[in-house]
Specification:
This protein is an alpha+beta fold and 291 residues long. It has 7 helices and 14 strands. A hairpin with a 4-residue loop joins β7 and β8. The chain starts with a helix and ends with a helix. The chain binds D-MYO-inositol-1-phosphate. The site of D-MYO-inositol-1-phosphate has 15 residues, from β4.
Length: 291
């Protein structure tokens, strides 16, 4: 019920803020590679996830839990209420001291997010959403401290075709085989001039956090975000924040249905008055760039 979602939202906010303090006071230690040398984990990722599990399990012992650091191959997202946790979304940034990452926490029911909380402890931007109630950003420090602003900030701007858009993409950690070929060809096509057969987007952005990319699209700071290869914990919270701000989540594979655990995603922001294209038209133009 909405009351329960509000209580869970408040708990996720409390846990995310405390986890943010754990990250900003930690040094990256015990850096180890998972599937390859660009797929990294630190002691802090694990410590934060342990903390999150302890907090959430003590309040909601019957709920399922899906977390990046406790995931084992074969684990599936089910229809049961499930907490989804990425303890550090942007581990590579954390390791390099690039001050941009977040704690991403969601509750899914029937495999869809109903509560989403994303907290970047460096910018102190706290993004939140409850299903049906809009999404918000609150900056905890600095000039905007204490103001809770509904997304998209200032209302949705007109949506344009790809040519003229600011588009988030990520390399992710999978750099081989057909996945690498798809990414390389797509990014070239998006960036190239129209004489080169490309779309000549205004630019591409790779800030290193899937959840923050989704919040950036929700906010209207970027027009779209595509990634192939990320996971349910990277997108669950940001998905709700995006959709509650009028954005749409589509599959990152042309013609497919999207699901929280489908691994390929295309996020498009809300379309304001005077838009040149609908979200579906922009999606179709983007899907046409995939080979
Ligand atoms: C990664 C980041 C990165 C994205 C990867 C994710 P992690 O999450 O979101 O931007 O490109 O696909 O796995 O490993 O830092 O939690």
């Amino acid at each position: 019920t909405p009351d329960q979602y509000q209580t869970i939202h408040d708990l996720l906010v409390k846990v995310a803020l405390a986890a943010g303090d754990m990250v900003t006071t930690a040094k990256p230690q015990n850096i180890t590679a998972k599937n390859n040398s660009a797929d990294l984990v630190t002691a802090t990722d694990k410590a934060v996830e342990d903390y999150v599990i302890g907090q959430l399990k003590s309040q909601y012992p019957t709920f399922e839990f899906l977390g990046e650091e406790t995931y084992k191959p074969g684990m599936q997202l089910t229809s049961a209420p499930t907490f989804i946790c990425d303890p550090i979304d942007g581990t590579t940034n954390f390791i390099h001291g690039f001050p941009y990452m977040c704690i991403s926490l969601a509750l899914t029911v029937d495999k869809l997010p109903v509560v989403g909380v994303v907290y970047n402890p460096y910018t102190t931007n706290l993004y939140t959403a409850i299903k049906g109630q809009g999404s918000f950003v609150e900056t905890r420090a600095g000039h905007f401290a204490g103001q809770k602003i509904q997304l998209p900030r200032g209302g949705a701007l007109p949506l344009k075709a790809l040519n003229g858009s600011l588009c988030a993409v990520e390399w992710g950690s999978d750099r081989s085989g057909v996945n690498f070929d798809i990414k390389s060809a797509l990014y070239t096509k998006l960036a190239a001039s129209t004489e080169q057969g490309g779309k000549m987007v205004h630019s591409l952005r790779s800030l290193g956090s899937a959840a923050l990319n989704l919040c950036g699209v929700a906010s209207g700071e970027m027009d779209l975000y595509w990634e192939g290869g990320c996971w349910a914990w990277d997108v669950a919270a940001g998905w709700l924040i995006l959709e509650e701000a009028g954005g749409k989540m589509y599959s990152g594979n042309a013609g497919e249905e999207v699901a929280v655990d489908c691994r390929r995603y295309l996020a498009i922001r809300g379309a304001g008055e005077g838009s040149q294209v609908t979200q579906e038209e922009l999606r179709n133009e983007f899907w046409g760039c995939l080979t």
